[in-house]
Amino acid sequence: MIRAYTFLMRPTVGQTIALAEMLRDHCSLYNGALQERRGAWRHPSKTSITYGQQSAQLKEIRAWDPEPQGRWSFSSQQATLRRLDKAFAAFFRRIKAGEKPGYPRYRGIGRFDTVDFPKDGDGCRWDSTPRDPVTRVRLQGVGHVRVHQHRPVAGKVKTISVKREGKRWYVILTAEQTEPGPLPATGSVAGIDMGIAHFLADSNGGFIENPRHGRKAATKLGEAQQALSRCKRGSKRRRKAVEKVARLHRKVRRQRLDHAHKTALGLVREHDFIAYEDLRIRDMSKAPAPKPDPGKPGAFLPNGGAAKAGLNRSIADAGWGVFLAILNAKAASAGREVMAVDPRNTSRRCPECGHTAKENRPTQEKFHCQACGHKAHADTVGALNVLRAGLARREAQPA
Question: 239-244 long-range contacts, Cβ below 8 Å, gap at least 24?
Answer without folding.
Answer: 243/166, 243/167
